[in-house]
Here is the input.
Amino acid sequence: MTKVKQAELFSDSAKGIYIPQHFAESAIRDKFKYIDKEQWGILESGPETEHYWDVWDDVLSNAETDCGGVLHQDGDLWIVWSQNAIDAINELCESQLEYETSHRYAGDGYADLVSMLWDEHSTYNMIKLFNEEYLDNGENTTQMLTHKPQWQLLGVDKRWKDMEPDVLADMALETFNMVPGSIWGPYGDDCIVLDSYGVGEIEVDLDCLGIDAITRDLIRESCDAYISGNDCAYIATDAVWYAVVNVEALNIEIEQYINSMES
Here is the structure.
C-alpha cells in the first residue's frame, strides 16, 4: 500500500501578506521546480513590488518540490503531497473493488442468503431453468443447430427427473458455487443460476491510510471514487455474485440418492 506523506506547515497565517516573501526568503530553492529566478526576486522584494500577487498566484498553481509536494494556502501555507494521497486512495479502492467482486471469500458472504431466501417459487424457477432450451451446435460447427434442455447441455444426471423437486432443491442448495459476474451474467461457461446478488456500492474506510485533514480536503474531488465527509470512499459497480449449480457435485448427490432408494 502506498505510504501517504503528511502535509507540512511552511508558514502560518499570522504573516499575512508577507507569506509569499517569507516563502522566497526561507525556501531551499533547489528543492522547488517551476519557479524562475525573476519570480523568486519579485517575491523576495515584498508586497509593495509590482506583480507580487500575480507571481504568487502562478507559484501556488505551478510550483512543485523535487519529491512531488505542491503548495496550498488556506490562510496558512502548506506543502501537500496530494498526488501521493490520491494514488494511495485509488490503490486501496482498486484493491477493495477487486476483492468484493472477484475474491471467493467475498462471494461466500452472499452464500447464506441463497438458503435463507429460498421458497417454493425458487424451486419452481430452478426446475424451469433445468428444462429451458438453449442452442447447441455440438463439437462440429458445421452441424445444424439444435435445441436442448439446459440440464442436458450441462450434463446433469438425467435421473433428476425421477426425484421430488424439493429433494433436488435441497441437493442444489448443498452443492452450489458462488460465481462472479456482471449484470449480463456469470463469467465463464453456461450454467444454471439459482439466484443472484448485485454488489452495488462498495464502502471503503480510508482511516488506514492516515491522511491528514489538509490533504484530505484538498484531494477529495480528485480521486476515482467518491469521497464522503465521513472519510469513506464509495465505488459503484455493476458486479454481481451468482449462485450457480455445481453439476459435478449435484450428480454425485443424485447418484447417492438413487442408490439409497434402490437398496
